[in-house]
Structure formats: structure tokens, C-alpha cells
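Apologies for my clumsy wording, but are you able to produce some protein sequence, whichever is easiest, and the C-alpha cells describing how it folds?
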Amino acid sequence: MASYRGHLAFSTILGVGYGAAALYYWQMDWVSALLGAGLTAASGMLPDLDSDSGVPVRALFGGAAVVIPLLMLPRLLSAQLPLEQVLLILASVHFFIRYGAAAIFRKSTVHRGMFHSVPAMLIAGLAVFLLYHHPNDLVRYYLAGGVMLGFLSHLVLDELCSVDIMGAKIKLNQFAGTALKFFSPSWGATAATYLLLAGLAYIAAQEFDGPREQLKQWQQKALNVGSSFGKAKAPIR
């Protein structure tokens, strides 16, 4: 199993690349690109929320208690709620995540359980998509994709580290197959995970308005940049 620093370093590298791609290919504003890069880097630690180690869990829940209210802020402001009510909601969410959610999570999860799975990765992405409100839906997809990319990097790295290469032989250790999984030995945990995933997917589908025109414009920008880059690199005949 990879170390805390190993996961963070790997997801940070992915985050830098993801943010650079948003700026260069998709012509995204620097604030959204930086936010996506940061979420990608931080999400590389998300599967360790079920860890038995105290330090990563405290750091992750402490960060989540700050980031999640910030992601909720645009949606609350768009609902035209009074400022006092917005502040009260954000403060309540912060303290619930920092103290209540952390305690509940520790009691209801086991290390390498269903939170260490592909469905959990999709849940994390859908949660960010639903929490963050932006007039351009493609920015929401970008941020959700960054969270899933960082989450996936953790699962892949854990799975790779479960392979011991000794000479010409490849041997799997006791953790092999426990990261990139779709089910767990606990049918209750598996059912609860898929019910949550289905619920979030249904809610997200209600908000999806099929921004095909925006998607076409985004793709065209990427093609134009790639085309101009290719022409610049082409040899002069």
C-alpha cells in the first residue's frame, strides 16, 4: 500500500497537469483551472477517510470542512437567501463535517471497505457536481472530473503497490484486489453504496440540461489549439 506522501505527490502531479490542460486546451479561466487542480490533488487522499490512522483522517476532514462550504456558497447565493441564513448554513455544515461526520464515518466504515471502490469514486464526483453551482455546466463537469481523477489515482496506486515483483515472478500481497473494486464482502455496505450512487445520479440527471452547444464550443477550442500547435511544430518544406 502506498504511503500518505506517495498518494499526495502522485495526485498533485496529476492536478498540475489537469489544471494546465484546462488553461491551455479548454481556455478555462485561471480560477476554475486552479480550483480543479487543487481538488484533484486533494482528492488523491479521499479514500483514506476510512483509514485507521488518525493524522490523515483529521487532515482530510479538516480540509473537507472548509472546502465543502466554499463549494456550496455559489449555490446558496444563487438561491437569493438572506446573508445571515447563508452564513448560518455554512457554519452548520462546517461543524457537522468537522466533528459529527468524522465520528460517524469512523464508526460506520472499515479500512479498504466500500469507500475504497469505484462506486465511491463516482459518488465523490457527483457530490461535487451537485454542491458546486456555476452558470457554465462544463466547469462543474471539470471539477467533478478532477475529484474522480484524484480519487482514481489513489485506487490505482494502491492496486499497483499490492503487486510484489521478485525476480521474474509477480506476487500479489494481501491487499490485492481491495482497491479497484465494485463490491465488498459486506452486502449491506455494498447495497448502501449503490443506493447512494443511484440517488445522487438521479438528482444530477434532473439538473442536466444537455449543454451540447457549450460542449461543442469547448471541443472546438481544444481542436483549434491542437491544430495551431501542430502547425507550429510542422517542418518547413
